[in-house]
Prior knowledge:
The protein is 27% helix and 38% strand. The chain is built from three helices and eight strands, in the order βαβββββββαα. It has helices at 19-26, 123-130, 135-161, and strands at residues 8-15, 39-44, 57-63, 67-71, 74-79, 83-89, 94-105, 108-117. The strands form two sheets. It has a five-stranded antiparallel beta sheet, covered by helices on one side. A three-stranded antiparallel beta sheet has the order 2-3-4, with no helix packed on it. The protein is globular. It starts with 7 loop residues before the first strand and ends with a helix.
Amino acid sequence: MRLRDTPTVEVTARLACSPERAWALVTDIELPTHTDGELQRVEWLDGATGVAVGARFRGYNANSQMGEWHTEPEVVEVEDGRRWVWCVGSASAPLAVWGFEVDADGDGSVVRQWAKVGTGRSPLSDFIDRHPDKEAAILEHRMSVWRDGMTANLAVLEQLAD
């Protein structure tokens, strides 16, 4: 695994709820704060109150290896009721791109959360520059942290959908 390949992680779950209910759940930016993941708290910025292209929010994060930090992602794509995508860092050189997708599935919904490492300079890319011989292991670890967080998010969604 190489940083230049912009690795992606995706998790999927089937929810026992309508796509409309699933959409309401995945557009709640506080969802990940209900798990033991990195996101500790989140707030909309600049008067935004929900998912819309150009809306920004601030996420306060923490983990034992990296300490505390915050990001100010921007929503860059919305297909109402179906998909929303946010970019951490600049849209032209993102640190990461994240998204949720909802599809109808019989009497329920399928929800996907995914994240892709971006091309922008970040603490992750700086760390890899200092340890190029460990690039694959560093990325594998970071992707596993993301995967674990997304899996926890979808578990919360499954509980809320019932």
